[in-house]
Amino acid sequence: MGAEESRNGNYGLMGASAVMYNMKRQVQHARPWSLLHQCSLDQWKSGHAGAAGFRETTMTCNGMVNKECSATFCISRQGIINVNKSGPVFSFRRKSKFTKMAEHFEYNHIPAHLSSIQNFHVKSVLCYRGDIVVLHLVRNLMTQFGVIDLSINKFLGIFGKKSVEFVNEALRGEISPDCSMCLIKIPSLTTNNSFDFQLYSLQTRDLIAEIVPPYNHALFTFDPRFCASRLAVTSFVRGEDNSLSLVQLPAWEVIMTNSRVDDLRSSLSPHLKELQYSRDGHMIFAIMATSGCHCKEKKARRFQPIDISIYVLSGDSTQTLHCIQYHRYTCALHSCPVNYMPVLSMCGSRMAMVLNDLETSIDHVQVYKLPTAGDLQNRCRIRILQRCAPDKLSKLPLPSRLISYLQFKPEAL
């Protein structure tokens, strides 16, 4: 299932109302993984995204990975601050978006005695979830991390002080679904050529648990159904470099493992680019991309596009469920991951990605139907979210716990 199906998609001058009607008509009868809709990237931005049930309209980014974009943060897609606003902190000299963003945090959120007297500087946004932002800070050639709560506009503190300064691309972080923990992958200072997984409490900024995974390229993501107690981790079991495991925290206990994620390769490195859960947690997406850099020929497109494969695995058993393959004119080494990463609809039952037909240079957006997993409660959530805007959920005459469930917050909250 991939680019070849685009010839049968809905591609034309459809308006947003027609897209919405067609989507409602198809989604009731279409089988899982069916192509529901296709449009150009311009049509997606001009109304098709909202009509198809998606909030995200930014599907491409010109930024370079680990410069203005990272695995978990895109300067073009993020909505936590307005980096284009004018103000006394921004000079008239031309600056990159990331420079403006770093100055914004240093001026507005980091206490003056840290930024000016102790010489703290923002090197990157390590990760964020909701209003909680974790910054990669540097002081005297040493890496540290800072926590900011944007809802109360408060700098909460510093944690994870290291004796060396790390480059941005050496770090990876993710905040737990309940925003109580932050898991960071960082180069080990005790074992050569290895990485540590370090779990920190964002309330106390203490190190809770750490482990050295057997493979440096291991990736992780939190299960959205649990507060901070379950992860999906690739290549976590020694001797199984093509595996996906469910791991219990803070004991790092392996619950179950799929030892064969990619049928075509013996190792997930260097093709595995990202790992993410579906919104309801019942599926895990492992995004693979072929290697090769064609950045210099990007505009002319005199090269073959990279091949993207999305392996879909069960969030409960790690069993491989499906694979979607498509082509994309981008660079998987230096380009922002936004250019080839799929996005999920607000109800969590649809997935969209940007792809290229080999016969034309037009960027297509395709929307696929995801299988509906879980119980009747989850099915009801999908139907409600398909008919109610997210900003109106809090106003529904429902118990607070049920509203939290509709917002995909962990069940324990």
Characterise this structure:
This protein is α+β, with helices and mostly antiparallel strands. It has helices at about 15-25, 40-50, 95-110, 110-115, 375-385, 400-405; strands at about 35-40, 120-130, 130-140, 140-150, 155-160, 170-175, 180-185, 195-200, 205-210, 220, 230-235, 245-250, 255-260, 270-275, 285-290, 305-315, 320-330, 345, 350-355, 365-370. The strands form 5 sheets. A 4-stranded antiparallel β-sheet has the order 1-20-19-18. Strands 2-3-4-5 form a 4-stranded antiparallel β-sheet, with helices on one face. The chain has a 4-stranded antiparallel β-sheet with strand order 6-7-8-9, with no helix packed on it. Strand 4 (about 140-150) and strand 5 form a beta hairpin. Helix 1 crosses helix 2 (about 40-50). The longest helix is centred in the N-terminal third of the chain and has 12 residues, at about 15-25. It is globular and about 60 Å long. The two termini are about 40 Å apart. The model is unreliable at about 1-10 and about 85-90 (pLDDT under 50).
